[in-house]
Amino acid sequence: MLTHFDGKGQAHMVDVSGKPVTAREAVAEGRVVMAAGTLALVTDDRAAKGDVAGVARLAGIMAAKRTADLIPLCHPLPLTRIAIDIDPDPALPGLRVTATVRTGGQTGVEMEALTAVSVACLTIYDMLKAAQKDMVIDGIRLLRKEGGKSGLFEAAP
Amino acid sequence: MLTHFDGKGQAHMVDVSGKPVTAREAVAEGRVVMAAGTLALVTDDRAAKGDVAGVARLAGIMAAKRTADLIPLCHPLPLTRIAIDIDPDPALPGLRVTATVRTGGQTGVEMEALTAVSVACLTIYDMLKAAQKDMVIDGIRLLRKEGGKSGLFEAAP
Amino acid sequence: MLTHFDGKGQAHMVDVSGKPVTAREAVAEGRVVMAAGTLALVTDDRAAKGDVAGVARLAGIMAAKRTADLIPLCHPLPLTRIAIDIDPDPALPGLRVTATVRTGGQTGVEMEALTAVSVACLTIYDMLKAAQKDMVIDGIRLLRKEGGKSGLFEAAP
Amino acid sequence: MLTHFDGKGQAHMVDVSGKPVTAREAVAEGRVVMAAGTLALVTDDRAAKGDVAGVARLAGIMAAKRTADLIPLCHPLPLTRIAIDIDPDPALPGLRVTATVRTGGQTGVEMEALTAVSVACLTIYDMLKAAQKDMVIDGIRLLRKEGGKSGLFEAAP
Amino acid sequence: MLTHFDGKGQAHMVDVSGKPVTAREAVAEGRVVMAAGTLALVTDDRAAKGDVAGVARLAGIMAAKRTADLIPLCHPLPLTRIAIDIDPDPALPGLRVTATVRTGGQTGVEMEALTAVSVACLTIYDMLKAAQKDMVIDGIRLLRKEGGKSGLFEAAP
Amino acid sequence: MLTHFDGKGQAHMVDVSGKPVTAREAVAEGRVVMAAGTLALVTDDRAAKGDVAGVARLAGIMAAKRTADLIPLCHPLPLTRIAIDIDPDPALPGLRVTATVRTGGQTGVEMEALTAVSVACLTIYDMLKAAQKDMVIDGIRLLRKEGGKSGLFEAAP
């Protein structure tokens, strides 16, 4: 039932060699919840203080390309697009991170999108931890997945 | 105010060359929330179906060692211990992940512990996603940090 | 005569751009020879003592994906399957490791299968070296190769 | 009894934070066994045909530096010396590989020396596989280890 | 106007999923300028003193395969050929480095060729820096690019 | 005479185990020469168009941490500071890149500073190549080096 293990319960990188190459896209999200004062350090006068979102975006993009190196049973895939949005949300308060990844490959890019979000969130934590240590990374989940045999998945709102 | 940026707002890897080498430890946690039926796939007859926690634990340990490669402004540190616990929690339902990391170095290992937790959670998601796509990775936070000038930090319960 | 060097004796990554993309598979094997008492540490009551084979299998799978990073003149290939079997053999005594790798690519995956076997064997050595330092890694060889212009290769028994 | 697993049988990177930093050295060896005609491709007129040993030596040196990335439970160590000898042995026939690694660290460098030997052997196989597919990598073992609490180890001849 | 940034000025890895896979090649060059006496260390009696060009060539080949890991917004590409020439030029005096890279992919390999040249030049500097610290790496540029929608580019002589 | 090769002309990672750990710093520079119109794309209304220098700075910082992975005979070092300045120079016209790296280690950080500059320059090229393909990366050199037995080095102006 768990496809990443064979009949004897041994982990393997599952055979996708018979699957067709198709266009695939995945979108994932997550958030870093912090104090309002910490969020203000990010949003106030960004040019002078440093571009927290810019650094985190780069980290997420680079991490997406290393997903198969980090997640043991993930297939290496030729990614064709990676985009990351990072937006302040005063209602949390905190930062919301969304990643979109595309490939033309034999398996999906959910893990690449989720890895991009996770590493972007970790990078935000790293840059703000001198100001606040009890931030929380929350709500990392798949929003949407398209392409491949299983077709479209869209998360409940 | 944000130490990862200089006076002109430029990102840099901050100078720790004047800081003493001290014993440091950090503990972080996170959880993967899933349906009860998905959790049962992990906990029922683990030997036959495959050791989800074992694979995730390895992934987290290996990721901790690559933290400075993933988080742009992190210092490379000679890690001296990495341990990861992954426990089922029927009340979530889901799996709870805790990582403990030690070093003798000039800066702390919070990011290594948080990275280990994040990648272990992503690996759990990867192994179970064929059964359930709407799992959520939640509550990634620092539990405890010891050593260095800032001394002991313990998260509120 | 050595294809990895040009007419002046200079190493290069040989041009495969004119070769067709075909289904390819390679199987390789190796063994770690140890004392019977060391092998017993692996096979007796595996659940309580720790899953040596499980850790080594993961290490081999992850190493296969990094072959082109390790072997200087290897082409990067989109691997579509990696499976590793690790079985105790009391007659050695020791552990036998077999790796199977597949791709759809322009060149074969022998090196990926051999790298997976080698790193799985090294990982076994690492986990058991506190018990025995004079274990030997032996008999790493290609068992079978299929696909591509050179067709089927099968090792003598 | 297996130090890489805790009391519950869970893999961890064992705590070395209490161990002193000492000078450590390890020497490992291995061999690639091939047909006499294949060995002649390596030894005859090396300058014109290409320097197989030179490429393999580099690959082994670079792999030693990545040991903690490849072997899941290995500690990262600041290597201070890596040297690799590759010598033809007509009696095999084949090539003998020896690696010497040093560090000043809290744990030994056996795995670094064994990894250097393994990757050098794999690289030799890669460069010669167009000439002979049934070469065998054999006899990878620790020759000598010095430094640290367990003191001197020397392999039987 | 800068394709690596979106309409809001945010960096992204640009979408190439709609572009066809075509044969692509890029050639880049660079040089390390040094004193005549330093160049003599490289060219005199190369076999006895060590093969500076051989080591630099390998470093460049391996770096080309890691371009997408180093350059944040580069797409991962399945490289099908990497060749590097390193020639002494007494008129500089110094060493000239040329790299040729091919792929069948959706975007060009200029960055792979330029990265190969840069890392080969850095490696030359590293091996000769004990003899001369004020060498200069100069003239790294694209010589030629072929394939893809933008067609042929050739540098002015 | 070339320290990176032994008496037989074989490349090795030279033994630094007997050298003391001292504070070391290196500063390197380089430049990307381009058309005035290309430079204007970087300097005009940076916030709206995208932060070319910010992306290149991050790439250089991350590359410095991977120097020992890229340059075959470089020792791994625990970097304690990495800072990169990127400034427009209308007189070139182009961008000037300067990198400063510190460590407490047994060997110098020249290669880390030079690698940071090189990868930052390559990243600038990557982001601007859609506008101009014949930019040139020039003048990569060591400006200053301090610490260790060889003492202070300062480049001629």
TrEMBL record, chains A, B, C, D, E, F:
Q: Which GO terms describe its biological process?
A: Mo-molybdopterin cofactor biosynthetic process
Residues recorded as binding substrate, renumbered to this chain, are: L73, C74, H75, M111, E112
Q: Where is the Molybdopterin cofactor biosynthesis C (MoaC) domain?
A: 13-148
**Pfam families to which the protein is assigned, alphabetical:** MoaC
This enzyme catalyses: (8S)-3',8-cyclo-7,8-dihydroguanosine 5'-triphosphate = cyclic pyranopterin phosphate + diphosphate
Pathway terms, separated by semicolons: Cofactor biosynthesis; molybdopterin biosynthesis
Q: Which InterPro entries match?
A: MoaC (IPR023045), MoaC_bact/euk (IPR047594), MoaC_sf (IPR036522), MoCo_biosynth_MoaA/MoaC (IPR050105), Mopterin_CF_biosynth-C_dom (IPR002820)
Q: Where is the active site?
A: D126
The Enzyme Commission number assigned here is 4.6.1.17
Q: What superkingdom heads the lineage?
A: Bacteria
Entry keyword Electron transport = no
Q: Tell me the keywords, alphabetical order.
A: Lyase, Molybdenum cofactor biosynthesis
Q: Which family does it belong to?
A: Belongs to the MoaC family.
What does the record note on quaternary structure? Homohexamer; trimer of dimers.
Q: Write down what this protein is called.
A: Cyclic pyranopterin monophosphate synthase
